[in-house]
Amino acid sequence: MKKGDDMYNTLKKHTCLAVAIVLVLLLIASSLKGSMQAQAASSKMQTGKVDPTIDQVAQEVLWNIRTNGFNPIAKTKGMVTGGLYVNWRMDNPGITNNVNPNSNDDPPSSHDIQTDLFYLNALAEYKYLHGQESSHDQDIARITPIVHNEFFNYNLPKGWVYFYLLRDGYLLNDPVLTQEAQMAATNYYNNWYDQRLGLLYNKSHTPGVYSVEHSLTAGAALIDAGTRMGHPEWVQAGKATINTVLPASYNIQAQLFYNNMTVNADGSEMVMNEQGKASTQGSAVEALLAAYEITHNPQYLTISTAVLQSLFTTSGLWDQRNGGLFFAYDLNSRTLEQKYKETRAQAHILIGLYRYNQIMRQLGQSQQFLDKQQQLINLLSTNFYQPIYHGYFYRVTPTFGNVISNGPDGTPQPEIYFTTEAMGLALDALQQTEFSTISL
Hints:
The chain has 440 residues and is an alpha+beta fold. The protein has one domain (3-438): Glycosyltransferase (Alpha/alpha barrel). 52% of the residues lie in helices and 16% in strands. The chain has 14 helices and 25 strands. The chain has helices at residues 3-29, 36-41, 52-69, 113-129, 137-150, 160-171, 175-192, 212-229, 232-249, 278-295, 298-314, 343-362, 370-381, 420-432; strands spanning 45-47, 70-71, 75-76, 79-80, 83-84, 87-89, 92-96, 193-194, 199-200, 208-211, 250-251, 256-257, 260-263, 269-273, 275-277, 328-330, 335-337, 341-342, 385-386, 391-392, 395-396, 404-406, 412-414, 417-419, 435-438. It has a 3-stranded antiparallel sheet with strand order 7-6-24. Strands 10-13-14 form a 3-stranded antiparallel sheet. Helix 4 (113-129) packs parallel to helix 14, helix 10 (278-295) packs parallel to helix 12 (343-362) and helix 12 (343-362) runs parallel beside helix 14. The protein is globular, with a radius of gyration of 21 Å. The termini are far apart.
């Protein structure tokens, strides 16, 4: 048998497996009438006015991913499934997956399933915002079964995955994604929540560890899923998790969150990473606001307000000269880490701020930092965006130039690789501002 025949048969086998998983999910999902899908459909997702600048950026980035971003030999769980490249060189898209060879033994098939979900989300938002127009239907049809397969029975303590699956299930009217959101929430509760400690964290490590943003979003996910599905024990676990994470990981003086924590057997916690990353603050605000919309716990809104105040005024993380947020604030040395700015940080903070102002408007209160909100929209549409080649880097210098770092051979070189993570998150943040109401 020829090598080409071997590859064809392998691809055929893996495709059949993926199809089988999806068929099982469809059968399960068909029994959900009146439950999770109906609950998602009742959520408020109202489109506003489409911004022409954002619209152009979205079209160009999605075209770039369609043209250069799909890797037919990407592997998921050891199987060839297809999916997005991790990155590719801006001016030479044939150079792909520039990843650390020490952490990956097969760069050609390197793959991060999270970027596939970001991509599907960007496509779903674009389609929904444009009255179900069909220009990206083939892209959606290509990536959706891959995402179905990748996130079947998702079992990691990352709460943001639940919200993306649920939102995309609603936007695309896809009951499989909605069911997978429920599976993820079930696993958060069954496998990662410690009832004795009242905390959802990564128990596979000794001592236990958690990323603050992941545990906060997982707590919010349990509150949301428990409310939708009628699981009060999930709601209680979500509240307990947030109420345990807050006093341990929130630095009251700086009004910022630490990045990572360790959890000892007796439940005591220690700071593992003393950085107050800008991206962590944005994700934390997103999580607290999602929890607030259901519980109406005023503490969640109060802390969100304080974090935004610190980000934009007191911590120095906001670059008053050029705009945008620096990488991090060291909560031990009280110094800024300002050599570069992450694209993902601007995206998370824009989402958190936009949702915060939606709540302020609903409460009849004054919206805050609207100037910073518009600046973030402008920065992600212009300074962070590469308009000639249509993409986003992982990070840029404080003045939005190329970061210089050492390559694998130790030679300094500019970072000019578009990353599918940065592209997906930037589009998510920009397009969310085109929804007048978002509650997922």
